[in-house]
Design brief:
Elements (H helix, E strand, L loop, with lengths): L3 H6 L1 H11 L5 H37 L5 H33 L19 E6 L12 H7 L5 H8 L8 H22 L2 E3 L4 E2 L1 H7 L10 E3 L4 E3 L4 H5 L6 E3 L5 E10 L18 E11 L4 H18 L4 E5 L11 E9 L4 E10 L3 H6 L2 E3 L6 E3 L1 E9 H11 L7 E2 L5 H4 L3 E2 L1
């Protein structure tokens, strides 16, 4: 959530940032409601002062044995006016808060300006395209021939977009998850977390999924819980309504979770195989950091996610998102896209984002400075380290042989318990 103080002081800067994101501009509404609300608060203070004077007049009249009826009538009139105005101010406060929750974070000054993904900037590429002396198969063909997964039976059980992993396919999925968790914990000092897969409204609101993206959530009505779209939600909310010590920062968390997304706005997009799912697995990286370090931390977070792809020997590229392709909550973001030779396309496997204090303000996540004991909002970051579906696609397609076998990358072999799938 943006600071109302920033909106008051820099309305044109905020407007231009929202416009660059292609979001609805609600700033004029916010300023109008805020001005009305502050005017009501000023009037309430005046009326409360008037009520106090009337109360004192009543007390004085009674002590002096004089008629206090006029003062009592005046106080009753003021009290009635205060009650009406308090209700109006409370209503305006709620409207203001709900409107602020629908305003996106504004892009950092370094983010390239652009309308959509065609204006994103390729920052770097790593690895070489695999070469074959045969026509490479896509992941669907490989998976069916090797009995790694069964989308038809998955659809029978739950509907389309819910994959069913089988045998060595299930084992490979589990191996990837365990490998990535251990990798981030052992190499970068992340603390492993195994979070709940359902969250309250307040938790979804903290990270920015609600109220704006309610249609993309799986909602359990009877319990008023939401299935999480990413472990970012529960992990970021670990420290909601807390004040951390500066000495405890930065905090790094790595978490596996299943992820659930209705993808209500994805009609017509590529839904073949693992390319777009309603349920998938992901290892998520979340950082709580001091504001002055957050962009340095974003760069390191991105490199940490990239290192998984390098360790598996997969060709990838790092893409800086333009303003029009940024998520609702992000101030800056890098996407990691892995090359899938069977699909002949780049597939996104990670988004690494700096939210600055946007989520921290929504979740009241703060830290106490050591030097002056001042309490401030911290900055939050998160990145996929990594999402497994498209990673699995790239791995199967990259390491296939002309006999239709899959070679398991060396770092993954201890987790999979073998060198090849045949």
């Amino acid at each position: 959530m943006l600071s109302i103080k920033q909106i008051r002081q820099e309305p044109e800067l905020v407007k231009s940032g929202i416009l660059a994101k292609g979001e609805n501009n609600l700033i004029d509404d916010v300023l109008r409601i805020d001005a009305e609300y502050r005017s009501q608060l000023t009037k309430l203070n005046e009326l409360r002062t008037e009520r106090n004077r009337a109360s004192e007049a009543i007390g004085t009249a009674k002590r002096q044995g004089k008629d206090a009826s006029t003062a009592i009538t005046a106080m009753q009139s003021v009290a009635s006016e205060i009650k009406v105005l308090e209700e109006e101010a409370s209503n305006n406060q709620k409207i203001l808060e709900q409107t602020l929750l629908r305003i996106p974070n504004i892009p950092h000054a370094s983010v390239p300006v652009g309308k959509d993904e065609t204006h994103n900037v390729i920052v770097r590429e790593w690895g070489n395209s695999p070469t074959y002396d045969f026509t490479p198969k896509d992941h669907m063909t490989l998976g069916e021939e090797l009995s790694l997964f069964d989308f038809l039976r998955g659809a029978k059980i739950s509907g389309s977009g819910f994959p069913l992993y089988l045998g060595r396919g299930a084992k490979l999925e589990r191996a990837l998850i365990n490998y990535m968790l251990d990798y981030h914990v052992e190499n970068y000092g992340f603390t492993e977390v195994f979070p709940p897969f359902a969250a309250r409204y307040e938790s979804m609101q903290t990270t920015g999924q609600l109220p704006k993206f309610a249609e993309d959530m799986y909602h359990i009505k009877d319990d008023d819980l939401y299935l999480i779209p990413t472990a970012e939600v529960p992990v970021t909310n670990i420290h909601r309504d807390e004040i951390l010590s500066e000495d405890d920062l930065p905090k790094y968390y790595a978490a596996y979770s299943a992820c659930f997304r209705r993808e209500a706005g994805s009609y017509g997009k590529d839904t073949r195989g693992f390319l777009r799912l309603h349920q998938f697995n992901k290892v998520e990286l979340v950082k709580f950091v001091k504001p002055e370090n957050s962009y340095e931390e974003l760069e390191s977070l991105t490199l940490q996610a990239e290192s998984i792809l390098q360790s598996l020997g997969l060709k990838y590229r790092t893409v800086e998102l333009c303003t029009g392709d940024l998520s609702f909550s992000a101030a800056k973001c890098y996407d990691l896209e892995v090359w899938a030779p069977g699909e002949q396309k780049w597939l996104e496997v990670s988004s690494c984002s700096n939210f600055e204090d946007f989520q921290a303000r929504r979740g009241n996540i703060r830290y106490r400075r050591s030097i002056d004991k001042k309490v401030e909002l911290l900055h939050t970051l998160n990145g996929s380290g990594l999402a497994t579906p498209r990673l699995l696609v790239a791995l199967l397609e990259t390491y296939q042989t002309n006999e239709g076998k899959i070679i398991i990358p060396k770092p993954l072999q201890p987790y999979f318990g073998g060198e090849i799938i045949d």
